[in-house]
Amino acid sequence: MTSKSRPSTISVYLYIPNIIGYIRVLLNCYAFAICFTNKELFSVLYFISFVCDALDGWFARKFNQVSTFGAVLDMVTDRISTACLLVILSQVYRLSFVFLSLLALDIASHWLQMYSTFLVGKSNHKDVKDSTSWLFKLYYGNRMFMGYCCVACEVLYITLFLLAKDSEKMMDVLLGTAKQSIVYSALLAVLLFGWATKQLVNVIQMKTAADLCVLYDINKKHNA
Amino acid sequence: MFLTFYVHPVSTFGAVLDMVTDRISTACLLVILSQVYRPSFVFLSLLALDIGSHWFQMYSTFLVGKSNHKDVKDSTSWLFRLYYGNRMFMGYCCVACELLYIILFLLAKESEKMTDVLMDAAKQSIIYSALLAFLLFGWATKQLVNVIQMKTAADLCVLYDLNKKHNK
């Protein structure tokens, strides 16, 4: 073993993109603590956190401070903030089962995907090149389209939260807004399409990842 | 979930399915608890801790190649060794956690404050007090282990990068 000294772990914890990550966590904590008393502030803070999510990757590459910890922190913060958003939506709309299902799909698809990525050694679940599904190729091959779907999903949830009044039915709220003007209808359609695509990709991703887990075992047995 | 302590899953898919089902069912339980009790922020935080700690732990386990996050042998924390070294104690903590959540749900009536519900139940008899204390201790231990687990796993992620750079 060489005696060259290693920098301590604190140096990585203090990387700029990781500090942005901590700010994201704090923003989310505060946002969800006040979400029912100040909906507008909640939406602004959530949106800022979402922007930071895009920024910290850029900062990491720019300052050469890419870290595994940062990537995991990013993924975990994403999962938790989406989960909490779905939880508060399940509180303001009756039909909580819809949001519980979306929460389950989000957790399950990302978990399986991460697990299977480790098993087959791909560096990043967004680098899938060999899938035969046209939707897969479209979604992951085109960062703009993927970005649109992710953003549409979050914006739809935030919009639903802002529009909610006293335990209404979600369908009424959506239809009521759409009827107000053709611009609102078009906007909602754009959001719904992006959201639907993302959920569909989640389902396909989950099936593909499960298949990879099974194939991993079969190959191991075959090579044993 | 109870079977996982006694039956080792024979497939990778089975193990992942197991873990995912655990996470989702705990999440949904915390969600419905956040609906029947105000302040929901408590349950949102527990949900965040559950997801965060297990996610970091799984990731770091893959990085260092341990077969199972329950096989941690080298941690210096006495609580860690107690929790993971002793399957009975770990089982008690996990079961106590889920039971506490279920009982909280069963005891709830129309958006009460959680502390009121717990105090009332405790006051009814010494047996209820003892039972609740028993469950709360197991739950608290599990949450504490979650926090330590998350920190340990984060350190492993950082060390992984440092070692990679060092060995170049």
TrEMBL record, chain A:
Cellular component GO terms, alphabetical: Golgi apparatus; membrane
Sequence similarity: Belongs to the CDP-alcohol phosphatidyltransferase class-I family.
Single GO term (MF): metal ion binding
PANTHER family found in the cross-reference section: CDP-DIACYLGLYCEROL--INOSITOL 3-PHOSPHATIDYLTRANSFERASE (PTHR15362:SF4), PHOSPHATIDYLINOSITOL SYNTHASE (PTHR15362)
Domain of life: Eukaryota
Enzyme Commission number(s): 2.7.8.11
Enzyme category, top tier: transferase
GO terms for biological process, alphabetical: phosphatidylinositol biosynthetic process
Name of the protein in its database record: CDP-diacylglycerol--inositol 3-phosphatidyltransferase
Membrane topology note: Multi-pass membrane protein
TM ranges: 12-34, 80-105, 145-164, 176-197
Keyword NAD: no
Keyword Transcription recorded: no
Catalytic activity: a CDP-1,2-diacyl-sn-glycerol + myo-inositol = a 1,2-diacyl-sn-glycero-3-phospho-(1D-myo-inositol) + CMP + H(+)
Major location category of this protein: membrane
Localization of this protein: Membrane
UniProt-listed Gene3D superfamilies: 1.20.120.1760
Needed cofactors: Mn(2+); Mg(2+)
Keyword terms of this UniProt record: Lipid biosynthesis, Lipid metabolism, Magnesium, Manganese, Membrane, Metal-binding, Phospholipid biosynthesis, Phospholipid metabolism, Transferase, Transmembrane, Transmembrane helix
UniProtKB/TrEMBL annotation, chain B:
Residues passing through the membrane, by range: 89-109, 121-141
Gene Ontology annotations for the cellular component aspect, listed alphabetically: Golgi apparatus; membrane
GO molecular function, one term: CDP-diacylglycerol-inositol 3-phosphatidyltransferase activity
Keywords in alphabetical order: Lipid biosynthesis, Lipid metabolism, Membrane, Phospholipid biosynthesis, Phospholipid metabolism, Transferase, Transmembrane, Transmembrane helix
Localisation per UniProt entry: Membrane
Single GO biological process annotation from the record: phosphatidylinositol biosynthetic process
Annotated membrane topology: Multi-pass membrane protein
Family label: Belongs to the CDP-alcohol phosphatidyltransferase class-I family.
Entry protein name: CDP-diacylglycerol--inositol 3-phosphatidyltransferase
Organism, scientific name: Ambrosia artemisiifolia
